[in-house]
Every structure is written in structure tokens, then in C-alpha cells.
Amino acid sequence: MILNRYNTTFIGLILFHTTVLLFTLDTFSISYKEAFLYFETNGILHSITTLSTTLFGQNDYALRIAFIFFYIGSSVLLYLLTDDYFKSQWDRLICISIFMILPGVNSAALVINESIIVIFSTLLYLYLYKLRQKEHYYLLVLFLFIDNSFAILFLALFFYSLKKKDNTLLVVSLVLFGISMSMYGFEVGGRPRGYLLDTFGIYASIFSPLLFLYFFFSIYRIGLKWEKDMYWYISMTALVLSLLFSLRQKVAIEDFAPFVVIAIPLMIKLFMHSIRVRLKEFRSKHYKMAIVVLSVLVLNFLLFICNKSLYMIIQNPKKHFAYDYHIAKELSLELKKRNIYKISSNDKELMLRLKFYGISEDFSIYITSNKVDNFDDKISINYYNKNIIDFYLIDFN
């Protein structure tokens, strides 16, 4: 990568945003789902997190740092992918900046799940395809064993092969899709009723509401009038499948969202084209729309990195979007201040979370968040001087 003002700006963005993510990481505790993955499973997420904590110690930074590296790798790959995609290098920087602050991408960079790995893997495939202008079938076979959601990529490549009239890609993608479905299927659940509005709501939270509306418009507009590239086929396949499934069942959006965010370059290219085909005096409404959309996106990003401040305005702390990722670390620190390293509780989810922070199970001291009359000590967890939850300790000794 030759150092010029654009590449230097990109490196600055990466360094700044990584610092912000590391700061935000420190505000998170391990959730029950993450603790279950860490202690009770044997999949790829378990392997990554246990390797990291073995090397760097059992702490929150070691737990999540690998996913931040996948995030950095994804940003670099998208930047490399778009070096000749836009008319202006500033368009390219706008594209990567929006990708980097998407709420869904930031969540994927910090929360233990496969999403950021899927984003990285898909961008890697696209980048290698761009370099050599040929399919890398060995990579597709490897994806088969990483996660069930790659079935969406295989299906998208099948549709893309029909356009290209590439018989080899058609056969390989169809075979891999069939094997993936036989190995994993797709996780659906809930009663047989429509979840379409729920799905739209989740996508709106992943993109930010106004940006998702423009994404939806872009996919539709390009499908009608523009040349459809691999980005479009991947995003369109994921979006349509998720919406179709949600008409009947609740879908696991984390299987679809990593492929949907691949459409960010399409959106920026379409928007910049819409501006440039107009005379300067007729561009004002586009600029105003961009300011509003980006302002909402930045606001969402700021709320994500300063998420604990929301407790000051939320009446019920349990309604906070990140409540499941709070409390446990602070509680473990308070217990250790009291020289307590062994407790018991009826809340088995809390016990598993505390286990990560070195609090094991023993029946001499009981802890509960349910108010009791006779207790020996009380631990209050406060954020910004607001009481979030109280824990009561009963010493049976």
C-alpha cells in the first residue's frame, strides 16, 4: 500500500477506531451466552476464545481481542477491494468510514459470535477473486466447515453463475449449498406467524434506521437499472431469504446480516452517481439527506460506545440493549474486594458468568438479587450514580 493522503487517512481511521473499540470493550462483561460458548461448547468460537485467553490471560481483552482483529482485517479488505470501484478516492474513504461505524459491525467486533468472521471470510473471497479474476474453490470448501450461514454465500454464487454462464461455479456452489443444508440447515424458531416487522427492526438497528431505508432502495434500484455485480447478488440473496423466512418463522438474523452489509459500496456508488448526474444547483436535497442519514448513524455509533450513559435516562435498567453484557465484571470485583472467591446462587446464568472472572461455586455464601430481610452484606452496582441492581449476601458460616 503506497502512502498517500488517502491511505494515510485510512490508517488513521483504523488506529482511531481500534482505540475506541478497546475503550468500549472495557465497559462490557461476559454475557451468559458468551460464557456458555466459552465453557460448554467445542466449536470455532470456543477454540478462538480459549486460545486467546490461554495466551493473554482470562480477561475481557483476551476474550474479545481476536474479534477486533477480524474487524480490522475486514476493514482493510474492504478498502483494498474498492481501490478502483469509485470515481473518487474520497468516495472510497466515505464508504469505509460508514462501514466502520455501522452499529451491527461494531457489535460484531466486540460480541463473541461468528458474524465478524463471516464478514472477513466473504471479503477475503471477494478480494482474492478480484486479484486473479477466478474462483477459489478451496476457500469455499473451507467456509463449509466454519459456519452454517455460508450456505447463503453458496446460493448467491449459484445465482451469480447463472448470469456469468459459469458451469463450474454453478455446479460447485449448488453442491456446497446442498451439503451445507444437510449439515446445518437453517435455525428457525417460534410459533408459525409473521416476524417481518421484527426483521426490519433488527436490520434498522444493524445499519441505523435511515441508512437501512436507503440500503433497501439501493438494492431495488440497482436490481432494476444497474449492472449487478457479486456484491449485489450476495446482499440481495441474504436480504430476500431473511425476509421470506420471516414471513413464516423467526429467523436468526446473525446468519444473514454479515452478507447484507457487503452492499455498503453499492450504496455509496449509487448515491455519489445520483449527485454527480445533477447540476450543482439541484444537489442540495441530496446533501441534506446525506447529512441527516450520517448524523443519525454517528449518533447511533456514539450511543454504542457510550452505552452505559443510557442508564441515566432508562427507567428500567433491564430494558437497556446491552444489559446482558454488564454487571458481572463489576460484581466479581466487589466480591473480590470482600475476599470472596466462592459463592452459590439459584441464578445459574450469573454463576457461569462469574466463573470467567474467577468466582467459583461453594455453598458457604449465598448471593441473590431478590430482596431478602436477613442478609449479611449488600452489593450495589451503580453506573453514573444510578443504582442498576442490588445483590444480597447471606453467610451461612
What does this molecule look like?
- The protein has helices at residues 5-25, 32-40, 44-56, 60-81, 89-101, 103-110, 115-132, 137-144, 150-164, 167-183, 196-207, 209-225, 230-246, 257-260, 264-276, 284-305, 328-337, 348-356; strands spanning 188-189, 250-251, 342-344, 360-368, 377-383, 386-395.
- Helix 18 links the parallel strand 3 (342-344) and strand 4.
- The model has no long low-confidence stretch (mean pLDDT 90).
- The chain is an alpha+beta fold and 397 residues long.
- Helix 9 (150-164) packs antiparallel against helix 10 (167-183), helix 9 (150-164) crosses helix 13 (230-246) and helix 11 packs across helix 12 (209-225).
- It is globular and about 75 Å long.
Summarize the structure.
The chain is an alpha+beta fold and about 400 residues long. The chain contains 18 helices and six strands.
Name the descriptors:
397 residues; alpha+beta; 18 helices; 6 strands
SSE layout:
Blueprint: H1 5-25, H2 32-40, H3 44-56, H4 60-81, H5 89-101, H6 103-110, H7 115-132, H8 137-144, H9 150-164, H10 167-183, E1 188-189, H11 196-207, H12 209-225, H13 230-246, E2 250-251, H14 257-260, H15 264-276, H16 284-305, H17 328-337, E3 342-344, H18 348-356, E4 360-368, E5 377-383, E6 386-395
Parallel strand pairs: 3-4
Antiparallel strand pairs: 1-2, 4-6, 5-6
